[in-house]
Amino acid sequence: MNTAFLYSPRFLEHDNGPNHPERPQRLEAIVSAIKDVGLWDSLDHRAFEPACEVDLWTCHTQAHIERVKALASDGGGYLDGDTYVSPVSFEVATLAVGAAREAVRAVMTGEVKNAFVAARPPGHHAESGSDARSPWGFCLFNTVAIAARIAQRDFGAKRVAILDFDVHHGNGTQEIFYSDPSVLFVSLHQSPLFPHTGVTAQRGEGAGMDKTVNFPLPPGSSGAVYHRVWGQVGARVRDFKPDLILLSAGYDAHEDDPLGGMKLTADDYGALVFDAKSWAEELCDGKLVAILEGGYNLDALASSVVMTLGVMNGQFLNELH
Fold first, then answer.
1. Domain encompassing residue 76
2. Residue 132: what pLDDT?
3. Which of 2, 57, 133, 252 is most buried (most C-beta within 10 Å)?
4. Distances from the Cα of 186 to the Cα of 24, 197, 211, angstroms
């Protein structure tokens, strides 16, 4: 079984406007790099359909969904200063969720060993909408959170771990699962930085206490710092014993990224993913799904995703360990 790679040219149609860092060229760079290094033909390229609203309801209020849908239907516009909805953005965002749904289905049923979802828009800043907050931070629907709920709803996963190494804190994912003991959410992120959440004191509430774990890291943190903290993450994951591990795979902690101030390299990302894959193999028969979040320097993003896929597909392991 190979690693599944879920991508559609339709993901290029979501338009944030000129000079926006979250642009279609991000995915074009990824696809080009995968082909250049000879990985493309070794991946399992799977078809998928858009998510249904019943899938979106697992994590979002109807008001949240309608806000995105109505703005798209009206020709588009800004949800906030950074987050734009174009006329096709609702369709593209639901297709991104559909890609994650298919990735979860294929992994949970054993059709593939693991999967990478190369979709946009990203999702981890999208909150439930229960307090009338807008979708924001370039995100419309929380793809990784919905993927977790689909794994539980449709495929019997009792516990899901979401590990987020995007340079920005996944505030939306945290909010959605803050009181839920069935989902472990762990975030390594730069602090201070947008969205200015994710302090260590935010640990969950009620039955979900200690199922939210934040590691705010100072600007300039190196791969060595990340790997030390990642060891602590592994201990939490082993204690939790998930049935599926999801990665909010953001690559904007790369040393060349314009929106972050961290010092990771593509090799560092490969090492993080290698460990996550090892935990999945130890705890849940290798069930691992990575979902693209940030990463805005095209070369850094592409090389980091190539390293991620090489590790997931078992092709670069000797270079790392």
1. 4-320
2. 65
3. 252
4. 28, 13, 8
Distance of CA 295 to the CA centre of its chain: 11
DSSP for 6-20, written as a single string: E--GGGGG----TT-
Give the separation between CA 187 and CA 261, rounded to whole angstroms.
16
**Average pLDDT for 199-205:** 98
Please state the φ and ψ torsions of residue 64, each to the nearest 5 degrees: -60, -50
Task: Give the global pTM.
Answer: 0.97
User: If DSSP states are collapsed to H, E and C, what string results for 156-187?
Assistant: CCCCEEEEECCCCCCHHHHHHHCCCCCEEEEE
Nearest partner of 126 among 100, 154, 87, judged by Cα: 100
Number of domains in the chain: 1
- Which residues are the active-site residues? 125
Q: Could you tell me which residues are beta bridge partners of residue 160? A: 183, 244
Rg (CA), the chain: 18
Q: If DSSP codes are grouped into helix, strand and coil, which group holds residue 292?
A: strand
- Residue 163 neighbours by CB distance under 10 Å: 30
Q: For residue 163, what are its two tokens?
A: 């590990």
- Residue 66, CA distances (Å) to 40, 74, 128, 176 in order: 37, 12, 13, 18
Instruction: Kindly report, residue by residue over 29-38, the tens digit of the pLDDT.
Output: 999 999 999 9
Burial pattern 231-243, b for ≥16 Cβ within 10 A else e, equals eebbeebeebebb
Containing H/E element for 108? helix 89-108
The domain spanning residue 17 has which CATH number? Answer: 3.40.800.20
- Say which DSSP state 41 is in: G
In tens, the pLDDT along 12-25 reads 999 998 999 999 99
At residue 222's C-alpha, the angle toward residues 311 and 214, to 5°, is 85
